[in-house]
Amino acid sequence: MSELRNSHQDLLPGGSEDEGESWLISYLDVLTLLITLFVLLLSLAGNGLGDRGQQYAGQSPTLSESAIAAAHAAGSRGAGLQPRHSGLLPQLEGLMPEGVSVTRGNEGVTLRIDDNLLFASAQADLTGDGRQVLESLLGTLRAFDGRISVEGHTDDVPITTPRFPSNWELSGARAIAVVRYLQGQDIPESRLRAIGYADTQPLESNESAEGRAANRRVELVLHEAASR
After folding, report:
1. Distance of alpha carbon 59 from alpha carbon 53, whole angstroms
2. Are 119 and 127 within 8 A, CB to CB?
3. In a domain, 227, yes or no
4. 57 or 217: whose pLDDT is higher?
């Protein structure tokens, strides 16, 4: 009878503590094995990535330079207005005739022409050579679809003639003469404007002949088109 009672107690929950916990031990063993396998796979994958990193290490300087260039460009746009047509500058450099220089500023690309290439002293009528100089620029001006400001500049030597009471009239008349020529060469007048600055924006000191010669000039400023 006691043996039968003991056999029934084995069937009750908790009747055999060792057998009740044996499945848990087996589960933990399997879980440990899975974690070990997972760690091993991660380790192998990490080594593979390291090999690829060494393989493409030679490209990292290029990527870094690109990132720096992009950041610099973004900073330049944030710091000040830069013309989007700045690509004109390398296209035009080296293509200008003697006496015409190309510069870039916040307002656009500037074609700077020495005044003696266009006009006789104290005059505002284009010379034959002046027309040829402007003719050499027509291809560039026609291809550009933005606004073109023609700006006349003088030195600080006063002028007093019946036609030009001051350098204001002379600089404005020279700018208008260039605008009229360009208009006659199929440059739309809606894209043109004439401005006379007299001697208010010198490039060099007017104390020397060379400085005064540099200040006497006509500039064609190529502004960015309003709609892009």
Report:
1. 10
2. yes
3. no
4. 217
